[in-house]
Automatic annotation (TrEMBL):
One record GO biological process: defense response to bacterium
Cellular localization per UniProt: Membrane
Residue span, Protein kinase domain: 9-204
Catalytic activity of the protein: L-seryl-[protein] + ATP = O-phospho-L-seryl-[protein] + ADP + H(+); L-threonyl-[protein] + ATP = O-phospho-L-threonyl-[protein] + ADP + H(+)
A GO molecular function held by the record: protein serine/threonine kinase activity
SMART domains found in the cross-reference section: S_TKc
Annotated protein name in UniProt: non-specific serine/threonine protein kinase
Binding site for ATP: 37
A Pfam match: Pkinase
Signal peptide (from-to): none
Entry keyword Transmembrane: yes
Topology with respect to the bilayer: Single-pass membrane protein
Length: 204
């Protein structure tokens, strides 16, 4: 069914690439759209890690997190099925000479607020304490109303309450701070002073 929904994982259906595999747009016969993350077969992520990711994401329910709808393990094939985000990712708009015009200041503020709410849920409000550790514009997806939803928990780690020390908090805070600067400036952190510059947006 998933193969049919993604037109046999055709390149025309590919909408993204990640560290563990490619992402495809899928559609069921009733018109319901999904995003399918197909893990690469020689990925270092084993079956146990895959199951842990599934269990982790399934327990996280928040309006600013991308929802996991299902998963599939068959032989060497491992697949995650997510809700489909019609407006792609934040970087699609933020760093495009044309698309960035669609991000009004109100929209940017709304996106920042959504990201903050998602992070707060992960860090404080969820019964699990999660540090995402890979927050970046390409991992911030936008729904049909331009609401921000945090995606890609492939690098996320469950942090026990008694292990919530400064290092992980500083890392998470730095990622979020960089995203805010990029949203406000419309520039990539590493490109702020030019390709050959050793300075970045944060140090500047």
């Amino acid at each position: 069914m998933i193969r049919l929904a993604t037109n046999k994982f055709s390149d025309d259906n590919k909408i993204g690439e990640g560290g563990f595999g490619d992402v495809y747009k899928g559609m069921f016969p009733n018109g319901f759209e999904i995003a399918v993350k197909r893990l690469i077969r020689n990925s270092s992520q084993g079956a146990l890690e895959f199951k842990n990711e599934v269990l982790l994401i399934a327990k996280l329910q928040h309006r600013n997190l991308v929802r996991l709808l299902g998963f599939c393990i068959q032989r060497n094939e491992k697949i995650l099925i997510y809700e489909y985000m019609h407006n792609k990712s934040l970087d699609y708009y933020l760093f495009s000479p044309e698309n960035h015009k669609k991000l009004t200041w109100h929209a940017r503020y709304k996106i920042i607020r959504g990201i903050a709410r998602g992070i707060l849920y992960l860090h404080e409000d969820s019964h699990l304490k999660i540090i995402h550790c890979d927050l970046k514009p390409s991992n911030i997806l936008l729904d049909d109303k331009m609401n921000a939803k945090i995606s890609d928990f492939g690098l996320a780690r469950i942090v026990a309450i008694d292990q919530m020390q400064g290092n992980t908090s500083i890392i998470a805070g730095t990622y979020f701070g960089v995203i805010i600067l990029e949203i406000v400036s419309g520039k990539r952190n590493i490109d702020y002073n030019g390709v050959n510059s050793i300075d970045d947006l944060v140090s500047h």
